[in-house]
Amino acid sequence: MRKSRAVMGNLLPFIIAIIFIFPIIWMLFVSLKPQGLGISNPLKWFLPPYTFTNYVHIIADFQVLRWLLNSLFVGIVTTIITLIVTSLAAFAISKINFQYKKFIFIFFLIGLMVPGEATLIPLYQIAQSMHILDSYIGLIVPGIASPLGVIVLKSFFDSVPKEVIESARMDGCSLFRIYYSIVLPLAKPALASIAIFTFIGSWNNFLWPYMITFSDHLYTLPVGIPVFNSNYSQDYILPMTVNAVSSIPLIIAFFFFEKQIVKGISFSGIKG
């Protein structure tokens, strides 16, 4: 009885993993099929012939690679600036005494309650007045605001002993030196968590880039893929190839940063 339970306990996670990974496997096999191939039996999707011509065609003749680079650029820059801004704000709220500090922190908490869709029209009007529509700046700047990042980092900075900060100040360290040399190195797990969620959020963001980009060379992948797929609504293979091209970087990143991603997800439940 115990052996059967142990077998079921090991088999069930394996079955669930296969169910979740099967669409990715199917997508990769379909992307390797010759263009225009008719398939009557679903099992034939996984059988030869295979070809990489679709990938060469997609990268050489369309702007998919440009959209991929746009997504990487916007995601990386947004993540870096978000880490700088949120860590500075969290450090100020946590370690610097100033007037209305509690009110400002409550203001960040209220920011979590506002759905992103409710801010689209004001953001669009601000971007229009600043003449940053259809630009990389317009794609990056709105993603920098991260109330969750400030709250998580503030909670982490609060756990840094006051004695450490006071000792550094007695040794002549400036506030910025304390922030850069003492607090930030201790906050690496929190920073990694925020970086992961910020990059994934930027990579998957569709609505805002769709609203403000008018030139196809500025499209990110979430915007460019639906536009591409709309031209091939009767064909499986090329759309699947585009989806595979957009998914492969994240799959590779997951294999390299699996531990950091899992730690980041678990760290999002940090104690206040």
From TrEMBL:
<comment type="similarity">
    <text>Belongs to the binding-protein-dependent transport system permease family.</text>
</comment>
<dbReference type="Pfam" id="PF00528">
    <property type="entry name" value="BPD_transp_1"/>
</dbReference>
<dbReference type="InterPro" id="IPR000515">
    <property type="entry name" value="MetI-like"/>
</dbReference>
<keyword id="KW-1133">Transmembrane helix</keyword>
<dbReference type="GO" id="GO:0055085">
    <property type="term" value="P:transmembrane transport"/>
</dbReference>
<keyword id="KW-1003">Cell membrane</keyword>
<protein>
    <submittedName>
        <fullName>Sugar ABC transporter permease</fullName>
    </submittedName>
</protein>
<keyword id="KW-0813">Transport</keyword>
<feature type="transmembrane region" description="Helical">
    <location>
        <begin position="72"/>
        <end position="91"/>
    </location>
</feature>
<dbReference type="GO" id="GO:0005886">
    <property type="term" value="C:plasma membrane"/>
</dbReference>
<feature type="transmembrane region" description="Helical">
    <location>
        <begin position="103"/>
        <end position="124"/>
    </location>
</feature>
<feature type="transmembrane region" description="Helical">
    <location>
        <begin position="178"/>
        <end position="200"/>
    </location>
</feature>
<feature type="domain" description="ABC transmembrane type-1">
    <location>
        <begin position="68"/>
        <end position="257"/>
    </location>
</feature>
<dbReference type="InterPro" id="IPR035906">
    <property type="entry name" value="MetI-like_sf"/>
</dbReference>
<feature type="transmembrane region" description="Helical">
    <location>
        <begin position="136"/>
        <end position="157"/>
    </location>
</feature>
<feature type="transmembrane region" description="Helical">
    <location>
        <begin position="12"/>
        <end position="32"/>
    </location>
</feature>
<keyword id="KW-0812">Transmembrane</keyword>
<feature type="transmembrane region" description="Helical">
    <location>
        <begin position="236"/>
        <end position="257"/>
    </location>
</feature>
<keyword id="KW-0472">Membrane</keyword>
